[in-house]
Amino acid sequence: MAWYGSGLIMWMEGELSESLVHIKKAIKLDDENPDFWLVYGKVNTELEFFDQAESAFKKSTSLDPDNADSWVSYAEMVHNRGSLKQAISILKNAYENIHDNNGINYRLTAYLLENNEELSAKDYLEKALAIDSNGYRELLDYFPEAMQNESIKKVIKNINQPKL
Q1: Is a pLDDT exceeding 50 seen at residue 164?
Q2: 45 or 136: which leads in pLDDT
Q3: CB distance 16 to 43 below 8 Å
Q4: 44, 53 contact by CB (below 8 A)
Q5: What is the DSSP string of 59-74?
Q6: Which of 19, 57, 78, 156 is most buried, by the most CB atoms less than 10 A from its CB?
Q7: What's the half-sphere exposure (Cβ side, CA atoms, 13 Å) at 72?
Q8: Cα–Cα distance, 25 to 5 (Å, whole number)
Q9: What is the pLDDT of residues 129-149, one digit of tens each?
Q10: What values do phi and psi take at 32, rounded to 5?
Q11: How far from 38 is each of 42, 92, 145, 157, CA to CA, in Å?
């Protein structure tokens, strides 16, 4: 779709207001396309139109609940606005739809640690490490303080030790 493509290009070039106009036109032509809603949410987030962004992310995740980027972008937006518990809730919903996505698992681990929910964080970390034992660096990108947590360090160390 041409409107969507031009909206994407404008977004990448930092022309956010123009991007928004084009993405809205794309949505008007096809309001069931989850990618349109995702980009609409991202652009609105950058413009600090948070109510519109939240509505767009909700629409995107409802149209395509298997799109991890939609869930993570939504959770990141609400987290950055100070709604840690809501971000955790969003990612738990994402996990119900997508069990094997490390981006969701590691981000959820970080947010749970930030919320002092160590046991739950450890569970999600173990799930993520079972999928990719070296992916824990992604967790450290989001939450470097995780390596100050002894139980988290232990889980990472145990998963990376050779099995006899």
Answers
A1: no
A2: 45
A3: yes
A4: yes
A5: HHHHH-TT-HHHHHHH
A6: 57
A7: 16
A8: 11
A9: 988 888 888 888 888 999 899
A10: -110, 10
A11: 6, 19, 30, 36
If we measure between CA atoms, which residue out of 144, 139, 134, 140 comes closest to residue 124?
Answer: 139
Output the pLDDT for position 161: 63
Residue with tokens 């909700």: 58
Residue type, 130: A
* Token pair of 42 as six digits: 């991202």
Cβ distance 112 to 79 under 8 Å? no
The one-letter amino acid at 55: S
Which amino acid is located at 139 in the chain?
L
Mean pLDDT of 87-116: 95
Average pLDDT, the chain: 93
pTM listed for this prediction: 0.92
- Which of 76, 87, 158 lies closest to 122, judged by CA? 158
Q: pLDDT tens digit string along 5-20?
A: 999 999 999 999 999 9
